[in-house]
Amino acid sequence: MYQLDATKRQQAISQVLGLLPSKSRTEARRTMVSLVHLFEGQDVNVIGVLYRAAEKGRFDTYSERLRKYYALHGKEVPIEVRSLPFGQDVDILRSLISPNRQRNPNYPPKLEELRRNKRAVKMELFFFDCYEEIKKLS
Q1: Distance CA 19, CA 25 (A)
Q2: Does residue 96 contact residue 111 with C-beta atoms inside 8 Å?
Q3: Cβ(20)–Cβ(28) under 8 Å?
Q4: Which of 101, 92, 31 is nearest to 67 (CA)?
Q5: Please, where are the H alpha helices in the chain?
Q6: Residues 29, 17: contact at Cβ < 8 Å?
Q7: What pLDDT, on the 0 to 100 scale, is given for residue 104?
């Protein structure tokens, strides 16, 4: 899982808060704690996206985007499968959910498990796409 222990989670949240104006930090902390709780098992992805967004002055935009994604798609992803895509190539993940993809009977067991858990793959790709969008911001 991408779960941090409580101390590391608080340290990471504090780093994000350090990038924000002091007047908005209390609300931002509540937002981050709430999102980390919603996306249980995805601490690294949630905090990472919000860190990058805060660097670009878009914390509010991306915190809202995370909240909307969770409301529409995230709660359908069981906690125990959220970390399955960890360490997989993004192109491979995209191919697993492509409607034009033909099933390969020789998938390694991990990819076969991912193929059966497309919601977890889509969640991982959502985070990746957020990172990519943020990188393009000026």
Answers
A1: 9
A2: yes
A3: yes
A4: 31
A5: 6-17, 25-38, 43-55, 59-72, 90-97, 109-116, 118-136
A6: yes
A7: 67
In the block, which residue shows the tokens 């895509």? Answer: 85
Domain positions in the chain: 6-136
Q: What is the mean pLDDT of residues 7-18?
A: 96
Q: Are 15 and 97 in contact (CB under 8 A)?
A: no
135 vs 129: CA distance, rounded Å: 10
Specify the residue for token string 């793959």: 121
Q: Give the length of the chain.
A: 138
Rounded Cα gap, residues 43 and 9, in angstroms: 7
Q: Number of C-alpha atoms within 13 angstroms, CB side, residue 104? A: 16
Dihedral sign for Cα 45, 48, 54, 56, please: negative
State the pTM of this model: 0.89
Quote the DSSP letter at residue 101: P
User: Residue 26 in 3-state DSSP?
Assistant: helix
CB 82 within 8 A of CB 41: yes
Q: Hey, which of 66-75, 99-108, 115-124 has the most confident mean pLDDT?
A: 66-75
Which residue in 81, 108, 83, 114 sits closest to 96, CA to CA? Answer: 114
